[in-house]
Design a protein that fits this description.
By secondary structure, this protein is mainly α. It contains 5 helices and no strands. It is globular.
């Protein structure tokens, strides 16, 4: 259970920091989109995603029916994202990113609430 709290804290802070940085500097969204168009950078991004996904899965591959499944899903999503980016860079640039940009504002709000939810599990902001 301690690994769950450590990873919940990591992912919670990551999501909130990412949300905050994007909201403060909105030009970053366009920059990220441009960076991913470069296949050399996409290669590095995919390797980092694969490494983060594998580490997360190796530490926390719990398929439970409680909040801990979110952490497991983060690992699997990171791994799958890395594999797709590595294997199909042209598909990523043509289809996936244009679709992702349409939903980006909704994803940002979802990430904020998910980050707050995970940090609440660690720090118990809200008692229920």
């Amino acid at each position: 259970m301690e690994k769950s709290f450590i990873l919940a804290e990591f992912w919670g802070w990551y999501l909130i920091l990412f949300f905050t940085i994007i909201m403060i500097n909105t030009k970053r969204v366009k920059q990220m989109y441009e960076y991913v168009k470069d296949e050399k950078l996409l290669f590095i991004i995919s390797l980092i995603a694969i490494i983060i996904g594998l580490i997360n899965i190796m530490m926390h591959n719990l398929w439970t029916s409680d909040w801990r499944i979110i952490i497991t899903l983060f690992g699997w999503i990171a791994l799958l994202k890395g594999i797709i980016f590595f294997s199909y860079p042209k598909l990523v640039n043509q289809k996936i990113l244009s679709y992702w940009l349409k939903w980006f504002p909704f994803l940002m709000v979802f990430m904020l609430f998910l980050g707050l939810y995970l940090l609440n599990k660690v720090y118990h902001f809200i008692i229920y």
